[in-house]
Design brief:
Blueprint lengths: L3 H13 L8 H6 L33 E4 L5 H10 L1 E4 L5 H7 L5 E4 L7 H6 L6 E4 L9 H6 L3 E4 L5 H16 L2 H9 L17 E5 L3 H12 L3 E5 L5 H6 L3 E2 L2 H7 L2 E4 L13 H6 L4 E5 L8 H9 L3 E6 L12 H4 L3 E3 L8 H20 L14 H23 L9 E8 L9 H12 L12 H7 L3 E8 L10 E7 L15 E8 L2 E7 L2 E6 L3 E8 L4 H11 L4 E8 L5 E8 L5 H9 L3 E8 L1
Parallel strand pairs: 1-2, 1-3, 3-4, 4-5, 6-7, 6-9, 7-8, 9-10, 10-11, 11-12, 13-14
Antiparallel strand pairs: 13-15, 15-16, 16-17, 17-18, 19-21, 19-22, 20-21
The chain binds 1,4-dihydronicotinamide adenine dinucleotide and 2-oxo-3-(phosphonooxy)propanoic acid.
Length: 604
């Protein structure tokens, strides 16, 4: 959180210039061509909900997409219908850093490093990285998230191609196809030298039983192999369904005749095959790698090949691509190497291009990407149900933070979700992100979205804890109410402090519209549209009329009024929904009404 002083300043300036708030529904609507959002607008909520992508330039400017590696024509066509497309291949890291400040999105394959410097050089303009393929180890995800940049990939279109290449390498290696071909081309006829080994009946260990691994397993079964797999996260029933037994890492590598690698490169899988693990393998084991070079300690593999522990290896991927000309592994006579061709079929490249173009265009249009790598992925049906609660969440955050007295410093926020749904049936990540957005944006210049919400909160020292109240009754709607409490702060509207000492606001969705239903200990009911004036007053007849006529005289349209009181003729809180910003004079007049003890104007 910013220092108290700067927080005070920002809160004040927010209140003075509320119409500049990016998240105000009206401003978003009028700037809809300039700002894109993460959720597809529904029929009911035709306004964008979650701003992920902020396109720069003039209101009607098309976004610019940099395509940094060759992409299939069908994908390019889709992109060109929506954006200015700059196809610039083989950029040096410096050239990429220079170009990126002019781009809203970039599309890469495995050959381009989207490093922290790239995000830093973008000056905040880059909002989407599209990886036209699966592996995102060439994208600095932490940096992307910190910069609020969405990363999407194309996780399915090249699965079969990668699996087929794995099988091609497996068979080619077992039968020395590449070596024999080179020998024939060199004018030799070495039939005895290239006697191979059979696949049928051999044990294949598939390391990583995901999309590619399971397709490799299926095909290897068809070749008559005995297939086992190691994958700590794969469901056993999915493996069983295709006749594959999931086993421990050690069991896989010690019993296999062939090992095929299909896990992502992560800190855990980096050099997962190394001197120690090679030492445990069956002598004469054969290894296929179409995953990532980094999952093998390449020097250790050279040693294992030289020692005859590993009889052969077939490698499509390398730690450094392209590998240096003197790479011992590539030059090893028992190694078959291909230049990262796993995804390179005509069909896969067309498919990947379309998949990534759709994802990038969708993200630039403001839809929640189904293949987001660094943001919550919410299934469409869940999303449509949650939409009004998403709006409610942001507005509650926005209201709660405006109730904090200057200089208090917001550090601890508690969110309570009351629902008849089982906790597992309610994904609150989207709601938490929106509450965070609502809390942070009014008091800072930071642009918060689904991607960077948790990071931004953490960076500002804002601790958001979540609690569920499981209600009895029908779980038809996902939530009964959401409560946002800010602890250890003073409030500029003392009545917002609950009995337990926190600023408390609570809201519900009624007929699809978010409502504010509690402030502190007072029950109110005002729809969360436009802005709100909260007044604490001595409960007495005529108050609604008095305040209503002050606003009427100032031509401020009142959309809603509600009074929550402790007991008749005692204190009450009146919540007034207004469409327009009342003038200072109108607010002054309200403050002068003798029965009004305190009041606050809150911009939603
Ligand atoms: N050579 C090429 O051109 C291509 C390479 N790939 C690479 O293949 C790999 C797999 O891709 P997909 O199957 O699409 O991904 P996926 O995400 O569907 O599958 C990866 C699997 O690895 C498992 N895994 C994670 N950590 C593991 C560990 N420590 N030990 C064992 N398993 C572990 C996961 O649970 C998951 O089931 C990726 O690295 C991808 O980049 C994918 C396509 C083409
Ligand atoms: O999709 C993947 O993970 C791949 O490795 C494919 O890489 P490529 O797009 O062919 O550079």
């Amino acid at each position: 959180m910013a220092t108290s002083a700067s927080q005070t300043l920002r809160t004040t300036s927010f209140l003075k210039t509320p119409s500049l708030s990016l998240s105000s529904s009206s401003s978003r609507q009028s700037l809809s061509s300039a700002f894109s959002v993460a959720l597809r607008p529904s029929r009911r909520f035709s306004k964008p909900l979650v701003v992920i992508v902020k396109a720069s330039g003039s209101l009607d400017a098309k976004p610019t997409v940099l395509v940094a590696e060759k992409l299939g024509e069908a994908g390019l066509k889709l992109l060109k219908e929506f954006a200015n497309v700059d196809c610039s291949y083989n950029l040096s890291p410096e050239e990429l850093c220079t170009k990126i400040s002019l781009c809203d999105a970039i599309i890469v394959r495995s050959g381009t490093k989207v490093s922290r410097e790239v995000f830093e050089s973008s000056g905040g303009r880059l909002k989407v990285v599209g990886r036209a393929g699966v592996g995102i180890d060439n994208v600095d995800l932490a940096a992307a998230t910190e910069h609020g940049c969405l990363v999407v990939n194309a996780p399915t279109a090249n699965t079969v191609a990668a699996a087929e290449h794995g099988i091609a390498l497996l068979a080619a290696m077992a039968r020395n196809v590449a070596q024999a071909d080179a020998s024939v081309k060199a004018g030799k006829w070495q039939r005895n030298k290239y006697v191979g080994v059979s696949l049928v009946g051999k044990t294949l260990a598939v390391m990583g039983f995901g999309k590619v691994g399971s397709e490799v397993a299926r095909r290897a079964k068809g070749l008559g192999m005995h297939v086992i797999s190691h994958d700590p996260y794969a469901p056993a029933d999915r493996a069983r369904a295709i006749g594959v037994e999931l086993v421990s890492f050690d069991q896989a590598i010690t019993t296999a005749d062939f090992i095929s690698l299909h896990m992502p490169l992560t800190p855990t899988t980096s050099k997962i095959l190394n001197d120690d693990t090679f030492a445990k393998m069956k002598k004469g084991v054969r290894i296929v790698n179409v995953a990532r070079g980094g999952v093998i300690d390449e020097d250790a593999l050279v040693r294992a090949l030289d020692a005859g522990i590993v009889a052969q290896a077939a490698l499509d991927v390398f730690t450094k691509e392209p590998p240096p000309a003197d790479n011992k592994l590539v030059l090893h006579e028992n190694v078959t190497a291909t230049p990262h061709l796993g995804a390179s079929t005509m069909e896969a490249q067309e498919g990947v291009a379309i998949e990534i173009a759709e994802a990038v265009v969708g993200a630039l249009r403001g839809e929640l990407a189904a293949t987001a790598v660094n943001a919550p992925m919410v299934p469409a049906e869940v999303l449509s149900e949650l939409k009004p609660y998403v709006i409610l969440a942001e507005k509650l955050g926005r209201l709660a933070v405006q109730l904090v007295a200057g200089g208090s410093g917001v550090k601890t926020v508690k969110v309570t979700y009351a629902s008849a749904r089982a906790p597992d049936d309610l994904d609150t990540r989207l709601l938490r992100a929106m509450i965070t957005k609502g809390i942070i944006e009014p008091i800072s210049s930071v642009f918060v979205n689904l991607v960077n919400a948790d990071f931004t909160a953490k960076q500002r020292g804002l601790r958001i804890s979540e609690e569920r109240i499981v209600l009895d009754g029908s779980p038809e709607s996902p939530l009964d109410f959401i409560q946002v409490q800010i602890a250890n702060v003073e409030s500029k509207f003392a009545s917002a402090i609950s009995e337990s000492g926190e600023i408390k606001v609570e809201g519900r969705v009624k007929d699809g519209i978010p409502h504010l239903t509690r402030v502190g200990s007072f029950e109110v009911d005002v729809s969360l549209e436009g802005s709100i004036i909260l007044c604490r007053q001595v409960d007495q007849p005529g108050m609604i009329g008095t305040v209503g006529s002050i606003l009427g005289e100032e031509n401020v349209n009142v959309s809603f009024m509600s009074v929550g009181r402790i007991a008749p003729r005692k204190q009450a809180v009146m919540a007034i929904g207004v469409d327009d910003q009342p003038s200072k004079q109108a607010l002054k007049k309200i403050g002068e009404v003798s029965a009004i003890e305190e009041f606050v104007f809150l911009k939603l």
